[in-house]
User: What shape does this take?
Amino acid sequence: MPTRRQFIAGAGAVAAVSAGFGVAGWTRRTTAHRPPPLGGQPAGLPAAQHAWNGTLEHDADGNALAPRFSRLLMLNLVAPPSRDAALLLESALRQLERRYPWSPDGLLFALGWGPAYFSGALGRPSPVPPPRALSSFELPALDHYDACLHLACNDEHRLAAVQSALMEGGELVPAVDLRTVFELRDARTGFVGAGLPAAHQYTGGIPGGGVVPRSTPLFMGFRSGLRRNQATEEAVTIPAGPLAGGTTMHVSYMRLRLDDWYELLDERERVARMFAPQVSPGQAHGFTADARSDPAGFAAAARRHGVVGHAQATARARVAGRPRILRRDFDTVDGGQAGLHFVALQRSIADFVATRNAMNAARAQYLNPDITPTVNNGINEFIFVLRRGNYAVPRRADRSFPLLGAAL
Assistant: This one.
């Protein structure tokens, strides 16, 4: 069986993955020319696709500042996986690595592969489960795309140019056109960082009057991504198995209903629902490393106050006090509505599910009748999950058609 390096280096003829995997259902697009040469990669690139944190700037409190703009490209294969397709994909990604520094001022990206790729295209068990609804009050559409490419940097126009080059034959770099490999099914855009939500707040789902503060990085008005309420990149890296050195990624698209958030709740009530009912606004705005909301006091707070805090509820999923997921979410105005593209990295999708189950705070309904699955229950009343999808994110060396060599 060839090694991964031998597989990528040896450009062979197009080969279908299995005899039973016919061409029907594929939007086949072929080219007469051979794949371009791979080319080298810049020195010092991390082995993990998801290793972004070492490139990020930090605020005055030592918290990493996320890239200001992100774009999710939801992709389906247009033909059965092949050696030529893997070479073309890898060549395109290396072109991007050579053109832009691996940083928010250049370009960061991670390519994940969905269960449909593993079980459908390769005919192998998927290392990640298919998505499903994760609460009694949500009815999301379930994404079954073959792949998801997360692009991020500080230049929104650069992301648009990269998307155009990859999926429309734009002239950014001639050799990055991937239309013979993927069909773009959806493009999700957004932003995170002080000033950006305020600049984009005049959209559906947010009341008028400039209610989103200019200092906030997200529409709901609070800081996120404090260093001790995020898992580390090392903690979400898979230690062994076919995805060793990689991670898993969950992607949700949520619509935000912030008219009630800003018009019906005062600041203390918003703080109670975002953090915990015993947290004051002054304390909330003073958090620098973590949202200290005493998860051990969850039951007592629910009984006494009749309100569940989002941070207090989700913190109950931590292991030895450490979060299980690394969030790379960002706000959006896709479709003319305020929303959130929630991107979470974790060793196993089960870690995300456990965190989401904790957020549901189902037990709270039995502790105080004022609490329901949504009313007085964290931020559940103000978010509506429209879509969910799960992906495996291999290490950089295995990102172009992972496990394909073993399937041929």
Summary: Residues 197-391 form one domain.
